[in-house]
User: Fold this.
Amino acid sequence: MITILASIVGFISSLVPEILKFFKDQNDKKHELQILDRQIAQSKTKSKRVLEEIEVYRDISEQHSLYSTYKSGVSWVDALNGTVRPVMAYSFFLIYAGVKIIQYKALTSTYRLIEFIEIIWNIDDQAIFAGIISFYFGQRTFNKLQKNKG
Assistant:
């Protein structure tokens, strides 16, 4: 009887290392899958970062190529080229102010300014003014931000 019991215990105990090996193998495979998942996530992050760097480099080279056309090497031509936008802006402002003055003069022949302020300075005028001011100050702000990054 002891012989049979010893044989059964010996047989069962020979399975214990195999069972432990099975659980260890399962645990190892889980761990490897977790490592692979982390490597995939890191790879995705790295590829996104590389794409962002490529886009930034593309934007920088595009800006460089756009603004390199403004430099001719002749100082007076470059100075004149730099005044085109401000001169155009001032010219359009003077024309706009002239139109508004003429409009005011035409309306005030018999009435006061306060009665026609809604006609002279209407929603369209406010939108034009806000758009122009926002453009110039926005451009200045973005230029400063770009200089601070570089």
